[in-house]
Amino acid sequence: MSVLVIGIGNKYRSDDAVGLVIADSIREKNIHNCSVVKNSGEGISLINLWEEHESVIIIDAVKSENLPGKTYVIDIAKRNLNTDWFQLSTHLFSIPEAIDLAKQLEKLPTRFYFYGVEAKNFEYGEGLSPEVQKAKDILITQIIDGIQFLNKPTNRSSKSTGN
Amino acid sequence: MSKSKTKTINVDYLARVEGEGSLYLKIKDNKVQDIKFKIFEPPRFFEAFLRDRHYYEAPDITARICGICPIAYQMGAVHAMEDILEISIPKQIRELRRLIYCGEWIESHVLHAYMLHAPDFLGYQDAIELAKDHPDIVTEGLELKKIGNELVTLLGGREIHPINVKVGGFYKLPSKEEFAPLYERLKWAKKAAYSMIKVMSSLDIPEFEQDYEFVALRHEDEYPFNEGRLVSNKGLDIDIADFGKHFQEEHVKHSTSLHCRLKERGAYHVGPLARYSLNFDKLSSEVQKAAKDAGLQEECYNPFKSIVIRAVETLHAVNEAIRIIENYKEPKKPYIEAAIKAGIGHGCTEAPRGICHHTYSIDGDGLITNAVIVPPTSQNQKSIEGDLEALVPSIIDLPDDQLSWRCEQAIRNYDPCISCSCHFLKLKVDRE
Predict the structure, then answer these.
(1) Class level of CATH domain A3-158
(2) Which of B356, B378, B379 is nearest to B62 (CA)?
(3) B145 vs A44: CB contact, 8 Å cut-off?
(4) I want to staple A107 with a disulfide (CB 3.0 to 4.6 A). Which of A55, A75, A102, B192 is the partner?
(5) Chain A CB contacts of B127 below 8 Å
(6) How many whole angstroms separate alpha carbon A54 and alpha carbon A107?
(7) Which residues does residue B355 pair with via DSSP β-bridges, in sequence order?
């Protein structure tokens, strides 16, 4: 089964678009055994997307006290996502709630990674801030490595995680 | 002489509603002094965005008003434009519009009933807590909602903010073959809809009735989605073009959403209760029987039973989707074209939460010169406050946390879409 990459965001809310921009870049690379979709981040539809996949990567902008452009890679099977990161979500079920609900319903992918970028600006408008633009390029390389790792089922236990 | 006691209960952010609102409740000597359903989500100025845009952009712009009920907005916009341009759409296009609306009703009703409202009746904080004890119920809800999403995606191009609806029809139509997989899933959805009615009608529903003026669309031949006259149980029976003569939007200090009222009689109620009570005879005998088996009468004045009516309407929408797909013949053309002309037009459709009324003016170049959109939640705000005024005295002795919970549950009866009405909920209770 292919690796599913889900880019999340709103293209009209500045840095919130970073997940979508990264998804477009990954799609253009036509990586073998990898499908890419974009999503607004509505939790129920995310569960519907990931429930039939064993290996999933989700990408989104986050907002905490850290410096804009900081990147995060989190193994969702081992660590909870910080709910404060998604306080600006306009959805009834944002990513952490969707993950909690999917856990209860045993609908979480076996191998499930979150790639995040600390955003600077969620204001109305298009275009990424310079800090997020720079981080985006770093994260694309990391995600491509991640997809290749997930395409090698024998190596699953050696994946390093953390910030 | 006893000392007077004032108590304030404030729910700063109402959970499990779409958008940002709050509730303020002031109680003095165990009597309700003040209730305000406050909406503080910033105004979104969609009506202003529409001005000077081409008439054909209206369905795509209005679809952005709501992520849950975009079809309601698109349909209101296309019907109003077709009213101006004197476009009469062929039967098959009309059927496909009903089909995409079935998808929206299924996804919206199921999301609300299973994920947002059922936890209130079962004593859970949210759907995640509910899923711990009842994973089968939540799983069934998720699967049923997915089928609604798939209908919208197939006809609308994508599930959120669809892009395939246009004035005169659709940009592109699916083939009969493309409906086949969905048709098989709809057969499962029918069983799930019956299960939904069983689950929702078995909930412990409070006894509470109000003397509402129900307002809904009524169509000669069918349970309403897109067309009909506006009628009420208190004598209203008007063409949708006369909405402005009978209804008045007004600004109130505590809400960034306009309140809409009947000029003659004030508050009125739109949504599943109104639609069902004014159109029970238009449901199929099968759905009527399912409603009666669930304990519903032909009219319903208990807003807490809206969750059961949503389940009944879900069955109706599933049946209707099956019927439309069974009879589908691909039209020769996906849309009807017409010459541009200046004029004023109206559209009114039954969004899952109630009627959504649109009025547009366009000039000779097809540019929109004025747009007025009246969403269902702005129409229900006075009824919501009326329900709370009537409900709170009967539960005033409850501890504040339980009082807050019951008030929030009463607000959620309306499945308020605050983002739409502004074009969320805090509760504050003041006790003196």
Answers:
(1) alpha beta
(2) B356
(3) yes
(4) A102
(5) 93, 101
(6) 10
(7) B350
Amino acid at B396: I
CA distance B231 to B86: 24
In whole angstroms, what is the distance from residue B207 CA to residue A47 CA? 36
pLDDT of residue A86: 74
- Give me the residue spans of the domains in chain A: 3-158
Tokens of B151: 């209908």
Question: B142 and A47 in contact by Cβ < 8 A?
Answer: yes
> In the predicted model, is pLDDT for residue A14 greater than 60?
yes
∠A46-A50-A53 over CA atoms, to 5°? 175
Give the start-to-end residue ranges of the domains of chain B: 6-206+327-431
Residues B98, B350 contacting (CB under 8 angstroms): no
Residue with tokens 């039967």: B91
Average pLDDT over residues B360-366: 97
Q: What is the pLDDT of residues B41-95, one digit of tens each?
A: 556 678 888 999 999 999 999 988 877 788 999 999 999 999 999 999 999 999 9
pLDDT digits (tens, 9 = 90+) for B258-283: 788 999 999 999 999 999 999 999 99
Q: Please state the pTM of the whole predicted model.
A: 0.88
* Interface check B43 vs A, CB under 8 A: no
- Domain B6-206+327-431: give its CATH architecture: Orthogonal Bundle (1.10)
C-beta of residue B70 within 8 angstroms of C-beta of residue B348: no
Q: How far is B282 from chain A (nearest CA, A)?
A: 32
d(CA B296, CA B264): 30
Interface of A with B in 36-55 (CB under 8 A): 40, 42, 44-45, 47-48
